[in-house]
Task: structure prediction
Amino acid sequence: MKKYEDLRSARFFAADDFRSFGHRSRAMQMGLSHEDWEGKPVIAIINTWSEAQPCHMHFKDRVEWVKRGILQAGGMPMELPAHSLSEQFLKPTSMLYRNMAAMEVEEILRAHPVDGAVLMGGCDKSTPALVMAGISWGFPFLFLPAGPMLRGNYAGRVLGSGSDAFKYWDEMRAGTITQEEWKGIEGGIARSYGHCMTMGTASTMTAIAEGFGLTLPGASSIPAADANHQRMAAACGRRIVDMVWEDLTPDRILTRAATVNAATVAMATGCSTNAVIHLVAMARRAGIDWGLDDLDRIGHTVPVIANIRPSGSQYLMEDFFYAGGLPALMKELGDTLDLSALTVNGRTLGENIADAVNYNDDVIRPLSNPVYHEGSLAVLKGNLAPDGAVIKPAACDPRFHRHTGPAIVADSYPDLKKIVDDPHYPITPDHVLVLRNAGPQGGPGMPEWGMLPMPKALLNRGHRDMLRLSDARMSGTSFGACILHTAPEAYIGGPLALIRNGDMIAVDVPVRTLNVLLSDEDMAARRAAWTPPAPQYERGYGWMFSRHVQQANLGCDFDFLTSEFGAPVPEPDI
Ligand code: FES
Ligand code: MG
Result:
């Protein structure tokens, strides 16, 4: 157990010196008194609320519940706002700013007089950004997930975030629904605060945080609009105070076993492809040597058992919560998980899920009746992706799991639009549609363009899937035969930069290969003729980003933020 004198905040507040006088008098300027801090841990609440962040709209209120818990347990709350990483409103892509938010939060925590932190996030990139920050900071923290929004609803139809937007957009373009219906869907698909309620990136990432042991049990499944969420927020406030006294630091939680657990949970939920990048980045921040091969190995053995869209047939996160949520899913996984892993409540994962109940075995399937027999993701390698590419076999037409077809290549999104919007473009469902220069540097920021729109020429003939290939990411709510994250990316001269229309591309998901049927000599000749594109940014954050971002297979973290880069950052001199 820690003593008050050992706390970081005591260095700021308790000393009998000029600096501490300044800290105390300025705390008193805010109306606080000695009783607020003396003998108490100061707890940061990183609040990612903003008016451009619909998924965190409730954080303005919810943070008060966290504070209530902190006060109940004898701590002093200190709310510190941070970048909200709004998936919908940040351009060119929220991924460009994940590392910026991670850096920002790490430095906010380091620079302030705080002993522990509750990190509030949930919209896609906010979860990995906050977790990466907390790991690198190194002091006790726990994660409070925003919770999913309620099921979408319009005209008696249940609507799922993202998935149904994509689906009905294709129907709109094919002329099978009216403008009126399209407008109704617009108003009904996101009808409460909270993050996307399919098993998209947000739900996947919060489940991963819980799988890591970084949330209180069950926290990631509670809908944002459910009063259980307020109670969970207060419980997080109470718990973090004890974590500070117990000195329960993240290095004791984020072990290799915890990473395997998080990846296993991700696979079993039918996770978003984005999870691959963020999992690698988080694990590597914790100093764990973790890569695509580790994920693929888990993907080979862990089946998808959460019957949640887009991998599952009909259910959404609200149904998952009513069925028992993540603790029930982890209980079904049983020994597949390392149940001895420590979690933020000070107990093991096994202890936390011992009493979990699965109330609906169609929503949370037993291992004997999975939604999909293998894990959600597969990693492909070959002469087109020496460092790997990712596909979600559960979300695509199985006839594309083994496919060879001629490439149609777009160098940019505007180029791609010309192809997909032309109703007479000469294309067959056997073609492989390729978009390049959409990777971490080329995008820039690796936009979620990877679910390339189905060409109108094919939609009009009734086709709804084809093989698509890019160095982009795709939304976690996307579906279709899309190969993503091709590394190295085309923009820096990866092999994707070298292919031309008509080159034959061969994909074999069962044996995990992705190749272009060209000889090494042909590839070398084309490489010699390739010229690098002009830089995207000549100043500012984008310039720093392009200099330091790593490729997708390394999690797109900045090289200088990884754990192996340089000595640990010293504590600030107060
Ligand atoms: Fe925030 Fe989907 S837009 S989670
Ligand atoms: Mg998304």
